[in-house]
Design brief:
This protein has about 450 residues and is α+β, with helices and mostly antiparallel strands. It contains 13 helices and 22 strands. Helix 8 packs parallel to helix 9. The model has no long low-confidence stretch (mean pLDDT about 95). The structure holds S-adenosylmethionine.
Length: about 450
Amino acid sequence: MLPSALLASLEGIKGFHREAFEGVHASGVQLTSVRLNPMKPVQAALAAAQTIQPLLAAPVPWCADAWYLSERPSFTFDPLFHAGAYYVQEASSMFLWKVLTEHIPSPSGKKVLDLCAAPGGKSTLLATYFKEGLVVSNEVIKSRAAILVENITKWGADHVVVTNNDPLHFQSIPHYFDVIAVDAPCSGSGLFRKDPDAIKEWSEDNVQLCSQRQQRIIADVLPALKEDGLLIYSTCSYSREEDEAILDWLVETQGLTSLECTPEADWHITPTESEKYQARGYRFYPDQVKGEGFFIAVLQKTGVAADSHYPGQALPTPSKAELGLLKSFLQLPDAYFLFKQTDHFRAFKKEWETDLSILAKNLYIKKAGVAFGMLKGKDVIPSHELALSYLDLQGLAAVEVDKATALLYLKKKDLMVTADKGWNLIRHCGLNLGWAKVLPNRLNNYYPGEWRILKD
Ligand code: SAM
């Protein structure tokens, strides 16, 4: 049963039709959708694996590479899921892609912050759209930042920096980002169909608390947005206090200007306007849209461009000898440089070196670019991140394994494969899963213990 106070509060809001809304929540209908990773050779992998390929029922019309599935498979037991071939993401929230194509037609060179990023749905989408940009994916809660690191690693992006900071900390880099996405923590009513257990957590008091927290989060981070930069605000709540009222507050107190989007009529997304300033928002109702409840709006900061200077912090570089050893394992393309973080060497795009030094000075970085590996004496121990990255590893030894062996590998169990001695990529349907070291009489499974499949 949906909370009667929620239903009463939605009366009169554009697009809300009580009967149909209650009906769809009672229907038991569940949707599943995925977004494929175009930076990996997924088409061939999906065709070879035949795990989710036969389930791709219809494209999500507002997002590239996105599909509704005809049923929900066990993703845990699909090795391609662990290889970062796709991300399981609710379809309405993929509308972010449409917003980006309309408002940022030239994504190259842009600096983007995803402020509330865990578990990483929007960040993997942003990483794909801004593949020639720099994406900072931030999560304030430490335990959730770890899940974010895992998902960004699987996605393989080499241009993402994962940070674990409070929104306020971004004030140390004023006017820095071209785009800030705030997918705010909210009262969560938009997910009631998917997760009926969440219904009992809902209360009017919590809606008020969320609304205040949303304002605080945005007020804290807005100084980090460039003049003319875009704020993309979204929630999975239907409550006006967390949606249109936030837009009015943004226009009135933060001086932002609302921008429009143009969804196709047959997507059945409801454009709404805030009460006071007619700022545009877009509502997704599950009785009308093929997706869950969602709200999104785009606003622009206006004003005179500030002349900002950001102090950076030198990134420790490998010595000549270390570089020689790393290169003997894998020669990176010229576009990358290596730096040292604790005992790991990491690869990052040279064009973003200055920016990385600025971020390192001002924020707590959990992961930047791709961990290449570490040195033990003269031996290179390659990192798991390297195996899953977009980087070209075709020259390295690899062994293609079948699904049963791939699952044993992902459970970190012993496996028998015939392979050359030394480091081998374990690959399934052409996608890397991780590393194994082949010794004369055994194979060491290097899959990260904390990510292994626990279920049998
Ligand atoms: N964008 C994510 C995605 O697409 O996968 C979902 C984000 S979820 C709706 C909101 C996130 O905000 C949560 O990860 C939560 O931990 C984080 N959060 C909670 N309190 C916060 C705060 N005070 N400031 C910033 N983020 C916060």
